[in-house]
């Protein structure tokens, strides 16, 4: 029901000619949900004003046309001399995500299948006290590419992702969240960029073309401050280092070991190490929206010092290791 209201609200916004990026994103996100959950019915269409209905129909037909073309499009054709990638592993850490894990996995599977991306979806559940694990078992009957993995104690976001890396087989890896914050279409973009030959692809929600929906005010301020700090410390042109949703070639995942971060600080350990160790990277715009079910696990108070520790650790590596850990030639 809340999806329907969200869509109605967003469309009303469109009718009022408030065509901001965020409004468009809201409509897209809500329409996506409505389609996905089957909630897109006459019942909710009746709730929309005429003009909004027209917008929605037009958007849907564009989207369908676009998808038809995209499914025929050859994705990620590598330039001369670059070996094509064979398999994409999407690694998803999940703890207590019973409200969304099923739709995250199915939605992603549909998108990747539609775009002909050879893939596996490795979901690492550790320490869930709700039905996340049972739902993953059920989903694996419907989604053949799903690989549910059970984490072992001690638990933690970073540990779960590293376990996912160890259990995955792809020569390209994308880390994605379970709470439907990240857009499945951005995963396809990541695959494409990695196939162009880049070692890493970093999404940014804060560049032209990117966006966020319902980002909590305080969290956003802290995020922006943290990113300014990281940028200044490392002198890099990346303004969204702290977002975990990123893509890497397997060579990067292995080349950045051993990982020190058991918790959310792994989010910055991988990209910062990859940059410092000399892997190539590209930044692309992505969209993000706040979770609608479940609870946030990131406790900024607990994580602040851990983020600082890992930043300073990689900074020390950059200036004092004399290149001992640098990427070795292909
Ligand atoms: N396996 C595992 N997954 C975790 C753990 N902690 C968090 N996660 C997952 O990591 C992802 C990110 O956690 P969130 O709680 O969404 O963190 P956040 O994005 O900062 O918070 P929100 O603003 O609520 O989205 C989600 O998919 C969680 O289920 C953990 O200890 N183990
Ligand atoms: Mg989240």
In short:
The chain is α/β, with parallel strands linked by helices and 330 residues long. 49% of the residues lie in helices and 13% in strands. It folds into two domains: 65 residues, no CATH class; 247 residues, Spore Coat Polysaccharide Biosynthesis Protein SpsA, Chain A (Alpha-Beta Complex), CATH 3.90.550.10.
Mind explaining what this structure looks like?
The chain is of the alpha/beta class and 330 residues long. 49% of the residues lie in helices and 13% in strands. The strands form two sheets. The protein has a seven-stranded mixed β-sheet with strand order 3-2-1-4-7-5-8, sandwiched between helices. Helix 1 (2-15) packs across helix 4. The structure holds guanosine-5'-triphosphate and magnesium ion. Magnesium ion binds at residues 177, 179, 181, 291.
The overall number of domains is: 2
Structural class: alpha/beta
CATH class of the largest domain reads Alpha Beta
| Strand composition percent | 5-15%
Globular, elongated, flat, extended or rod-shaped: what is the shape? Answer: globular
Contiguous low-pLDDT stretches (5 residues minimum) are 10-26, 32-49, 65-73
CATH topology of the largest domain: Spore Coat Polysaccharide Biosynthesis Protein SpsA, Chain A
CATH architecture of the largest domain, please?
Alpha-Beta Complex
Tell me the CATH superfamily of the largest domain: Spore Coat Polysaccharide Biosynthesis Protein SpsA, Chain A
How many beta-strand elements? 9
Write the element-wise H/E pattern from the N-terminal end onward.
Answer: HHHHEHEHEHEHEEHEHHEEH
Helix share, percent: 40-55%
The largest sheet, given as strand count, sense and whether it forms a barrel, is: 7 strands, mixed
* Individual helix count: 12
């Amino acid at each position: 029901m809340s999806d329907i209201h969200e869509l109605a609200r967003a469309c009303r916004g469109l009718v009022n000619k408030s065509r901001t990026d965020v409004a468009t994103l809201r409509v897209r996100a809500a329409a996506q949900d409505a389609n996905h959950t089957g909630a897109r019915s006459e019942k909710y269409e009746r709730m929309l004003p005429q003009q909004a209905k027209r917008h929605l129909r037009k958007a849907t037909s564009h989207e369908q046309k676009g998808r038809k073309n995209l499914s025929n499009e050859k994705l990620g054709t590598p330039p001369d001399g670059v070996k094509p990638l064979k398999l994409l592993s999407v690694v998803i850490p999940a703890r207590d995500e019973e409200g969304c894990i099923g739709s995250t996995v199915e939605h992603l599977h549909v998108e990747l299948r539609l775009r002909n991306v050879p893939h596996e979806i490795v979901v690492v559940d550790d320490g869930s006290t709700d039905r996340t694990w049972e739902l993953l078992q059920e989903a694996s009957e419907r989604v053949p590419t799903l690989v549910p993995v059970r984490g072992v104690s001690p638990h933690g976001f970073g540990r779960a992702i590293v376990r996912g890396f160890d259990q995955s087989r792809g020569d390209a890896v994308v880390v994605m969240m379970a709470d439907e914050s990240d857009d499945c279409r951005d995963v396809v973009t990541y695959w494409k960029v990695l196939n162009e030959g880049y070692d890493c692809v970093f999404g940014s929600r804060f560049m032209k073309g990117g966006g966020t929906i319902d980002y909590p005010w305080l969290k956003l301020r802290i995020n922006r401050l943290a990113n300014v700090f990281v940028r200044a410390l490392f002198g890099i042109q990346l303004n969204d280092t702290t977002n975990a949703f990123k893509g890497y070639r397997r060579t990067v995942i292995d080349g950045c070991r051993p990982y020190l971060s058991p918790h959310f600080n792994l989010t910055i350990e991988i990209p910062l190490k990859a940059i410092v160790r000399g892997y190539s990277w590209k930044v692309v715009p992505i969209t993000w929206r706040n979770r609608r079910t479940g609870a946030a696990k990131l406790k900024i108070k607990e994580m602040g010092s851990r983020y600082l520790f890992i930043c300073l650790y990689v900074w020390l590596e950059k200036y004092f290791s004399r290149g001992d850990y640098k990427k070795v030639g292909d």
